[in-house]
Amino acid sequence: MVEQVSVFLENQAGRLARMTRVLGDAGYNLRALMVADTSAFGVVRMLCDRPRAAAEVLERNGFAASVTNVIAVEIPDVPGGLADVLETLDGAGINVEYAYCFIEPSGDAAVDIFRVEDPARAVGVLEAVGVTVVPAEKLYEPD
Amino acid sequence: MFQPEYEAMGRPALEELQSARLRSVVRRVYDNVPAYRRKYDEAGVDPESIASLDDLRRLPFTVKDDLRAAYPYDFFAVPLRDIVRVHSSSGTTGQITVVGYTKGDIDRWAELMARTLACADATPDDIVQVTYGYGLFTGGLGVHYGSERLGCLTIPMSGGNTKRQVQVMQDFKTTVLACTPSYSLLIAETAEEMGVDVRSLPLRVGVFGAEPWSENMRTQIEEVLSIRAIDIYGLSEVLGPGVASECEQQHGLHVFEDHFLLEIVDPDTLEPLPDGERGEVVFTTLTKEGIPVVRYRTRDISRVIPESCPCGRTMRRMERVTGRTDDMLIVRGVNVFPSQIEQVLTGIAGVAPHYQVVLTKRGAMDHVEVQVEVGPDLEFDEIRALQDLQRKVKADLQSALAVSIDVKLVEPKSIQRSEGKAKRVLDLRAEGGGQ
Predict the structure, then answer these.
(1) Hey, of A41, A46, A58, which one would you mutate to test binding to chain B, going by the most B CBs within 10 A of its CB?
(2) pLDDT digits over B336-394, tens only?
(3) Which end of chain B, N or C, is less packed with Cβ atoms under 10 Å?
């Protein structure tokens, strides 16, 4: 299972910079980051080294941070690769709450992060059809 | 009970004592305080004609402005050489006022605060950390003298330096904490940041006052600190802390009626209301020498709980003060008390009891924004959950207050914490603020 750090941020100048500085100063390397925002606030989702410890560091510095379980999937580098994966999940009745994409640090394959209700079941469904589910240790240094 | 001979005395005997003391105080203010003499002469009231409690309603009221006009010493009823201490009001609502105490006043005050602490179940075995400010504010020294009178080990911390408060609480094995309710939550937060498990400390009782707070906030404080939270009441113009206190029943505050006459009046007509009806709290001090007040309008809103209390005290109880006529906000013609907002917020999971109300003008209309911190236990990863929470807070507030408002979720600990009285309202309407 991949652990993602989620942080609640007010829409306020310099807040994101401050948050990343706190992590940087504490020695946590960021691997991927995505910001979802509304007019009033935003949620930052990121993969970083030792996510639980990183969330604690952020909390100690006055941020609302938590750890969320997500799944990471290697997307075949062919047209329709992502569609195949999503259709598989859809076929099993698994809703995707949100998703974001980045390039795996070790290679050049695309990795998609999915937030689903039941991550363990989603992993089973995907592996059964031969999709590569990426383990946490390939993405960041686990706690 | 610290003084059962008074606190549990029969009502007829109590009323007799009150009548005698009332005659004396009316005579004393008329003879010694020019402002009272003028007031009574203008109203055509002969102090000699005040014979019983029923005559009280014929006397004019005293208001805060009377004390302001008498700044600093003109409301004192004894020569300055008999005054041994002064305090002043906290200035929450404008210019400060000065109150003076004779040696006898200080002595009775200690007694009343000892009663208060005993109401909260404190005994000489307790270790009391006094975190109210020491100085002109009545809170610190008031609790201090009462704690010593009861025989408790007393730690004169005063306010501020929250980390040190936690350290002392842990090292000195504090069992009773006296401070404002909002400060107790800051202490709890600070303890958590310091890695101190405050719930496992010997602390067992909190004696909280000096600002209005809600029942839900009590539940929260009792939960996070693992203590029993007792509401105490007082104001410098009447005495300071020690005017009324909850007992272990935690249902209404016993007014120490052998020293203070309690009336509830309609704030508009100023007519006394029967027990049970809500209105403005009015006090007459029966034993104060330095600065007695007769029918002092406190601006606090409460009511008398008519039933007798199982604790055995015969002194009537007033309901916890839910607001003041002067921190009542008038928003688009609707009366709103900050305590109502607090009551709603503390009932919603996912938000913290820290909030601020910001009032601005949008064109000619009042605009209210309630800023509330997201709670530590909130599942905030999904935007939808946050939006649902925001909508829920907004809907609940609007249905409780009957006025339209906006809600802004803000980050934890971003609302300024207070070491004394919490500042909940930012009224920018007069400054033409807003968008």
Answers:
(1) A41
(2) 878 788 888 888 888 888 889 998 888 777 888 999 998 877 777 888 888 899 999 99
(3) C
